[in-house]
Design goal:
The protein is of the alpha+beta class and 178 residues long. The protein folds into two domains: 120 residues, no CATH class; 30 residues, no CATH class. It is 23% helix and 37% strand. The strands form two sheets. A five-stranded mixed beta sheet has the order 2-3-4-5-6. The protein has a two-stranded antiparallel sheet with strand order 1-7. The longest helix has 16 residues. Bound molecules: zinc ion. The site of zinc ion has 7 residues, from loops.
Length: 178
């Protein structure tokens, strides 16, 4: 059985949509981002809560996104579960003469039967991609199975001081305290 998402799963039927508030819930995962060839996100788990308020030909869609997306660490290339938390509003206007849409307002022709939110979700999440994603710096632990830096740091700070006592130190101590 195929469970991959389809773009039509993000359609809101407009024809019979009454005025007032409507709630929708979506989940964006790797399959969702896979619907877009240019997606930089391959794996994600983001919950999206939409509150659509319709008043005639205008709809205000408040979009709350929360979850995480996998990004490769810029240093060790291991995946980081980058947190996503965003609130945005998309205004949809049905109009006789649709103008060019932008990030905040989407013009659709009067009589349009469906509003598809997939593209908006996709672009909105991509706007939140960090310029630089590095483990440690971001507060996210490195997932690398063999973290060479951590290993060598541990070796430098522990092994010589505790396990082996350098005889020269013993000599110095005796000089100082006698
Ligand atoms: Zn890393």
């Amino acid at each position: 059985m195929k469970t991959a998402q389809t773009l039509s799963a993000f359609d809101v039927a407009l024809t019979s949509l009454p005025n007032g508030e409507h709630r929708y819930h979506y989940r964006l995962d790797g399959d969702f981002f896979g619907l877009f060839e240019a997606s930089l996100i391959k794996k994600a788990d983001i919950e999206v809560d939409c509150t659509l308020f319709r008043q005639g030909n205008r709809m205000d869609v408040r979009v709350l996104s929360k979850g995480a997306m996998d990004l490769p660490c810029d240093r060790c290339l291991e995946p980081l579960a980058w947190p996503v938390e965003d609130e945005s509003v998309l205004v949809v206007q049905l109009t006789e003469a649709p103008a060019e849409s932008n990030d905040e307002i989407l013009y659709l022709p009067l009589g349009e039967t469906r509003l598809n939110l997939a593209h908006y979700f996709y672009e909105n999440i991509h706007l939140h991609l960090p310029l630089r994603a590095v483990c440690g710096e971001s507060g996210l632990p490195c997932q690398a199975p063999s973290n060479f830096e951590a290993l060598s740091e541990g070796a430098a700070s522990k092994t010589p001081a505790t396990d082996q006592t350098d005889p020269r130190w013993e000599q110095l101590k005796q000089i100082n305290f006698s």
